[in-house]
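Many introductory courses stop at the sequence. We go one step further.
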Amino acid sequence: MNNHSNLRSALQMGAAALLGALTLAAGGCSSTSTTSDDSLDAVVPISSSEWKIDHDAFKKLGYRWDWSGYPPLQSRAQIVHTTAHHDVIIAQGSGATLSVLDAKTGKVRWSRQVDRPTTSFFESVRYGETLYVASETDLYEIDLRNGNTIDRDRLHAVTSTRPVIVDNIAIFGTTAGELFGFQMDQDFKLWSYQFDGPIKTPPAVIDEEFVAAISDGGDLRTIRVKSAESGITSRIAGGTTTNILTDGFSIYVGSTDQSVYSFAVEDGLRYWRQRSSAPITVQPVLHETTLYVTTDDLGLSAMDVDSGKPLWSNKSVHGWVVGLRDGSDLLVWTGRELISLDADRGDILSRTKMDDVAGVRTDMFEDGNLYIIASDGRIARFSPR
């Protein structure tokens, strides 16, 4: 398997899927675990044996170790989704476990099993103090503060994406090409819109009125959230395996048709297209006026959002941009290394090889805390020095 194939295996994201690799260093603080009343006995803390952290390596990247935490998991289960917020870390296990860790201390605030261990869940979505956790057929509303179930809705459909929440409406895609809005306070399907093929990536919220979605066949549309009225319509030669992005003015798509696109939100006009020799499989990242994209031809590029022209490219780096430190150091996860790049030129400043990791997260793009998720489910937090 070549390097690009290895990268795709490690970095393909479904919303934000976990990305893989690290060997860390110093005794981690053991986390205490509390579980909600409806948790099952099968959910147990993982081993809290010493986790070795290479402090010098993280010092070169500009970070220092704060804590190591241990979300409970089913036996032989793995972390499948991790989301970092300013106050909590949300960890979902393959055995239908859901855990919330305190961001300051790494201690488990609560942990529970949401459904049967064989039930698969999409990445949870936070809306205020509520977590929305969806399987293919059900939507759970869970109180973020204590893990109690607020509501459980039957969706009467088989979904293929995590929900997007706009007010009291949850919006899903299906493999049958249906985009539908589910009114949560009344527990019914409010509307449905048919695309020309399966919808496998979640829609993107443009504003309070519209979301954008794309099918595997390249059917790109904006849909009015409350009425399902169609807005703009555009078509490309393929779909996407990464999340589409928007800044409220343009919609950005890294496509399986070997191109990156920008479309106008107002009328669907294609602003630009940048071609590649292979499908775009690493999640693009939008920050202010720059779109960071990895392609087979150019490696990692910083593209100007107005023109699509690369401001710089580094062919030796293929990865996902996770954050910006001190306004100048771009942090990139390759699936094997954390690399620091000069944000203005793309030159490599430092690189740290990592093994046995399931993912890397930050709680905000600029000067955020860095979270490393080990393959066995342990999580370590590092803060900017």
